[in-house]
Design a protein that fits this description.
Largest sheet: 4 strands, antiparallel
Strand content: 15-25%
Helix content: 40-55%
CATH superfamily of the largest domain: f41 fragment of flagellin, N-terminal domain
Number of helices: 10
Structural class: alpha+beta
CATH topology of the largest domain: f41 fragment of flagellin, N-terminal domain
Radius of gyration: 48 Å
Distance between the termini: 14 Å
Number of domains: 4
Length: about 575
């Protein structure tokens, strides 16, 4: 029996020793690696989850590096824009000097040239990692689609339900920050979006200045005279004549309306009514005009004086007076005529004067293009009747069958005008490369009642800067204020660009902070799944060492005394 018990004891001890060795090895590995789950065999579920989380953390680290690079580029771009803004302020102050004292224009231009060169250097220097967002090369920067004019800033990575990874990025729009673009359109270059004359609808002037109206208006019938006097109508003397107003204009088809005729008599009583105490004598041209206006008050005509500017003051033209139609007769014409004049007194003579007709306007066609974000508003007038209109890229492309917003011929412009303002009684036609807009033969109006053309012409993106390099106050000292407006427009754009960069930089910073927090969370999660508790490892390692010592001792004893071993493991035997 003793040998049997000894054999059993030895087997138990060997089993315990093997278990102790395996456990000790696990504790040794955990102590060496710090990991409770180092491989799939340790815990397949935890190992799989932690491996996936480590992969996500690694991907986030790549994104974090990309955000750091983007933040550095944005910082460089912002600093360059801020320096550009300060330089434009200096150019603005120099232009103010030139505007206040044109004699300094040459010296001012020398300084401005240096400052313009400095802006070029700023743009060229804003390079980081091989990218420059201020000196760009984007083909047709205002027409290019966003992906073709943008820098991509990687911001995040995500995993779809299928397990595939997807990244997202910010589109940083170079159109909003470019100072100089190789094909034009940078903020410090002429803006290519200007539609110019809009096919002849408006006039353009120096430094991008444009007119908001292009009207042809008729003028009233009038006749001027040089006073010859004094005129003595005392003692029963009279000045008589026939006044005819608002006869048809000779250019309209017949039969012509003869107008309204009035018999006029001017005597001492007439003069005294205007100039009490004059004794019927008209002393000068001013009195002559007042007497005539009184005599013509019920005829639809009146007398007037003429004036001019003299050293900034409005002054009457000496000895000049005139008669004009007030166009109150209700007739189509605008004219005045004197016939049957009894005597040429005071410079008054027989005459017939028709007012002009504003029934035709000629547009000098220039080809133009409307960009996608450009809209033109206007009001079209014809003989005191108006209609509002709007022109945009979609209208041009739809009407002319195009895709680029271009109006390239006078014939195309005629087609466009017919669409926008065409109406009965209005003729729109091409004439030797120009465009004529006129009323048809049914229109008989003349004078102030007769008009055709455009007012309220506005383009939504204007005023547009003419570009820094177009500034030349030395050659054009009196354009300083126009240059100043252009620089103010550029300054506004650069300020907006700096704000855009700042907002983008803030977004990158927020994304970077978020990813950093996500990485910390992933690290904590992985640690909770696989990291070993080193205090627990140390205690268990010591316990295993004690157990190993006990098992070793038990084997030694088993070899010496079976009975003692049995007592050691089973306690005292009972008989």
């Amino acid at each position: 029996m003793t040998s049997i018990h000894t054999s059993q004891t030895a087997m138990i001890s060997l089993t315990l020793l093997r278990q102790n060795s395996a456990a000790s090895m696990r504790m040794h590995n955990q102590a060496a690696t710090g990991l409770r789950v180092a491989e799939a065999a340790d815990n397949a579920a935890y190992w799989s989850i932690s491996t996936t989380m480590r992969s996500s953390a690694a991907s986030m680290s790549v994104i974090q590096d990309g955000l750091g690079l983007a933040a550095a580029r944005l910082d460089v771009t912002y600093s360059a824009l801020d320096e550009t803004r300060a330089t434009l302020e200096k150019i603005k102050s120099r232009l103010l000097t030139a505007a206040s004292d044109p004699s300094k224009a040459q010296a001012v231009q020398t300084e401005i040239d240096k400052l313009i060169e400095h802006t070029r250097q700023i743009a060229q220097s804003a390079n980081f990692g091989g990218e420059n967002w201020l000196a760009t090369n984007v083909t047709d920067i205002y027409e290019a689609e966003l992906p073709d004019r943008s820098a991509q800033i990687l911001t995040s990575i995500s995993k779809a339900a299928s397990g595939t990874l997807a990244t997202s990025s910010i589109d940083f729009d170079l159109k909003r920050v470019s100072l100089f673009n190789e094909t034009g359109g940078g903020m410090l270059q002429p803006d290519p979006r200007s539609p110019g004359t809009i096919g002849g609808i408006r006039n353009t002037f120096s430094v991008g200045a444009t007119s908001s109206a292009n009207m042809r208006s008729g003028s009233d019938g009038h006749q001027s005279f040089t006073f010859a006097g004094p005129v003595d109508l005392s003692g029963g003397k009279e000045l008589t004549f026939t006044l005819t107003v608002d006869a048809d204009h000779p250019d309209v088809p017949g039969p012509h309306h003869p107008g309204q005729s009035h018999s006029i008599t001017i005597d001492q009583a007439t003069v005294e009514a205007v100039e009490p105490g004059s004794g019927g004598i008209i002393a000068d041209y001013q009195a002559m005009a007042e007497v005539l206006s009184h005599a013509l008050s019920r005829t639809g005509a009146a007398a007037t004086l003429y004036w001019h500017w003299n050293e900034g003051r409005r002054e009457n033209v000496p000895d000049r007076f005139g008669i004009y139609s007030r166009e109150t007769s209700g007739l189509d014409g605008s004219s005045v005529a004197i016939s049957n004049l009894s005597e040429e007194l005071g410079g008054l003579t027989e005459f017939t004067a028709h007012g002009s007709r504003g029934n035709e306007i000629r547009l000098s066609f220039d080809l133009f293009k409307l960009y996608k974000d450009v809209e033109v508003d206007f009001t079209f007038w014809i003989n005191n009747s108006s209609q509002s209109g709007k022109l945009d890229r979609a209208t041009i492309d739809s009407l002319l069958g195009k895709e680029d917003g271009r109006v390239e011929t006078a014939a195309e412009m005629v087609q466009l005008l017919e669409h926008m303002v065409g109406q009965p009684g209005l003729v729109i036609e091409e004439d030797a490369g120009s465009i004529v807009m006129r009323t048809d033969a049914s229109d008989r109006l003349a004078g102030n009642k007769s008009e055709v053309g455009f007012t309220g012409i506005s383009v939504n993106i204007e005023p547009l800067p003419g570009g820094l390099e177009s500034i030349d106050v030395a050659a054009n000292p009196y354009w300083a204020e126009a240059y100043l407006r252009s620089v103010e427009s550029m300054l506004s754009r650069v300020t907006d660009a700096a704000a855009y960069v700042g907002a983008t930089r803030n977004r990158v910073s927020l994304q970077s902070d978020f990813l950093s927090r996500m990485q910390d969370s992933l690290a904590r999660g992985i640690s909770q799944l696989v990291d070993a508790d080193m205090n627990e490892v140390a205690v268990r390692t010591r316990a295993l060492q004690v157990q190993r010592e006990l098992v070793t001792q038990s084997l030694s004893i088993a070899n010496a005394s079976t009975e003692i071993v049995l007592q050691l493991f089973n306690g005292p035997r009972q008989y």
